[in-house]
Predict the 3D structure of the following.
Amino acid sequence: MHGSDAMDATAVPASVDPPSVDLHWMQHALGLAARARDEDDEIPVGAVVVDAAGNLVGEGWNRNIREHDPSAHAEIMALRRAGQTLRNHRLPGCTLYVTLEPCAMCAMAMVHARVARVVFAARDPKTGAAGSVFDLLQDPRHNHQLAVEGGLLAEQAGPMLTAYFRAKRAKA
């Protein structure tokens, strides 16, 4: 599966404090977003799934344009890989780091997978489903809610997205 070629079994040492752990994995997701942009000319969004022990179990970046697959968002690619790695369609205790607030499709995939937590960078004021437009991840009507943290490294992710779309409009 493309989008996970660089994944290794690295983990952040347990002695590292939680904010630094989040920063580490979001920086990794930003690197994947850059790969989406640079290698595949995709919208630069990257995602990483980390298990409760701090091990990288899945990663991905947007592939929907290249693969002609409307479901191939970065989060879905990372969730697919994590499920394969853990040999389970449920991902309890896992945290998903993503450079853009999840859309409704990706948010519901996380709910169904029982992901424990999502940390995202830039908010999506048009389609965000983690509080910006919808709040699907913490909706009490679902049988599972996720802990949600937004804005981590948004000052890097937001401009990356803005620059990508400006460049696309300039070519049109």
Summary: The two ends are 31 Å apart (CA to CA). The first strand starts at residue 46 and ends at 50. The helical segments are 18-40, 74-86, 104-113, 154-171. The chain has a mean pLDDT of 92.
